[in-house]
Amino acid sequence: MRRLRKLFSSVFVKLLLVCLLAWLLITVSVSILIISHRFMAGGPYNHLIIDYLNYIVADLDGQQERAAVIADRLHIGIMYLGPGKPWASGDLPIPANLHFFQPPDNTRLAYAFGHNVKYIRYQQPTGSYIFAVPDRDPDDWLQSHLHFLALVIIALIFAGTYFLIRRILAPISVLHEATQKVGKGDLNHEVQVPGNSELARLADSFNLMVRQVREMLVAKEQLLRDVSHELRSPLTRIKVLLEMVEPPARVEQIRCDIRELEELITSILETARHFHQLNRLTMEDVDLHALVAEVMERRGDGETNVILEPSDRTVLLKLDRPLMQRVVDNLLKNALIHGRPATGPVRVRVQHGNNCSELTITDSGPGISEHDLPHLMEPFYQADKSRSGENAGFGLGLSLCKTIVEAHGGELILTSQLGRGTEALVRLPCEIM
Predict the structure, then answer these.
(1) pLDDT tens, position by position, 358-374
(2) How far apart are CA 256 and CA 251, in angstroms?
């Protein structure tokens, strides 16, 4: 059902259905006009038909033998319905359930139509005669296969319409592929659509948009570098002057403030660098459980501080390894620092299902209030109760983690209870091996 709904939501399929509907309406309309003309065209000749039938009926004189001779000579069928025993002659059988149409200007004639046969009913006071007349020459191949030929022509027209619409809408597929490439960070990609159609102008607008975005990103990065340079220059001069001054009581505090400013500048630069990397993820098959163990080993977290629960299966994910290592490292650091005082170690668990893998990092610290919890992943936000002290950071880590996880098609969820600890859940699309 989902594939069918997606199929009928396609612009190409909609245009094709519109053409098909237009063809059906045209066919039905023309058929009705032809049938109407078929009935109306014989009106002026009804009196001639009656005169001719009068001669035939007079020649028959109710004799079946004479009817057989005439039927063989004219290659028609003749049936008589009246007093006495009905009879029929000729090679063309006459069905009993014919539906006759009577002209409005004549009550003695009526017409019915079958496959390649026209039936004429002629009413007389003594009874009625039904004549079966071939509608076309049976030896004429074109007339005998006219319906089949019409279907072939219609199929060819429909196939030509299909390929023509597909060619007209081909730039839409090109634009779709271009949006995917730009979404992955290829801002140098441009769409080439020849002509001056609406889709060609749309492609030009798309290329202009990509160039403007590229220029904005370059300007943003340049601004960030310039601001960082301007901030570092006075800090460097202050540090040099501090070394030349006798250290009074406030000098050490000034040094701490300077170190904090340097850490903030470094943190902003690293965060901007990682955000820039999100536009060009380098995906590879990664064992999530092994990646967590590798980060823990590099951090030097002992078994008393962090416990990684064993996994019974290997979980392979398409991940950017360095960025996902940054996520795990930040979440572990938050759990160890902001989960103090703790009643137990930080517990890390990797679980897998049919459609996703889940990385859960749980601490047993004081928890986070309901007021602060929804804002923790906003840049520079710090909760007063859970983020204080010299190792509190600047509120950029969780924001970066959230962006990295979402760039992988996953989600980062934080839950917490005061007095019982905080849990960080990373849910990622997975492939189980």
Answers:
(1) 999 999 888 888 888 88
(2) 9
Least trusted range by pLDDT, from 71-85, 90-104, 145-159: 145-159
CB 185 within 8 A of CB 166: no
CATH 3.30.565.10 spans which residues of the chain? 282-432
| CATH, domain range 198-278 | 1.10.287.130
Phi, psi angle pair for 289, to nearest 5°: -65, -45
3-state SS class at 350: strand
Residues of the chain with CATH 1.10.287.130: 198-278
Close Cβ partners of 43 (under 8 Å, ≥ 6 residues apart): 103, 105
State in Å, rounded, how far the first CA of the chain is from the last one.
29
Q: Is the distance from CB of 149 to CB of 141 less than 8 angstroms? A: no
Q: Name the pLDDT band for 426 (thresholds 50, 70, 90).
A: very high
Q: Which residues contact 194 (CB under 8 A, 6 or more apart)?
A: 200
Task: Give the three-state DSSP class for 370.
Answer: coil
Residue 123's pLDDT is 84
Residue-wise over 411-431: b if at least 16 C-beta within 10 A, else e? Answer: ebebebeeeebbbbbbbbebe
CATH T-level topology, domain 282-432: Heat Shock Protein 90 (3.30.565)
- Report the sign of the C-alpha dihedral through residues 152, 158, 164, 170, in that order: negative
For residue 420, what are its two tokens? 């019982």
Cis peptide bond prior to 341, omega within 30° of 0: yes
Give the largest Cα separation in the chain, rounded.
Answer: 146
Share of the chain above pLDDT 90, in %: 9
Task: Give 300-350 pLDDT, tens digit per residue.
Answer: 866 668 899 998 788 788 898 888 998 999 899 888 888 888 788 999 999
